[in-house]
Amino acid sequence: MTSLSASLVRGALLSPLKRAGRPDAALPPDRPTRPATPVAPGPLAAYGRICGFTESGALPLTYPHVLAFPDTMRLMTGRAFPLPVLGLVHTWIEIAPHRPVEPTEPLELTVYAQELNPHRRGTEVTMTTEARVAGELVWESRSGYLSRHAPRRPEPNPASTPSTAEAGANLSAATASTAGRRAAASPEELPARAEWSLPGDLGRRYGAVSGDRNPIHLYPLTARLFGFPRAIAHGMWTAARCLAETRDPAAVRTVRIDFRAPVLLPATVTYAADAAGDAFALRGPGDRVHLVGAVTRKG
Question: For 272, what's the count of Cα atoms within 13 Å in the CB-facing half-sphere?
Answer without folding.
Answer: 20
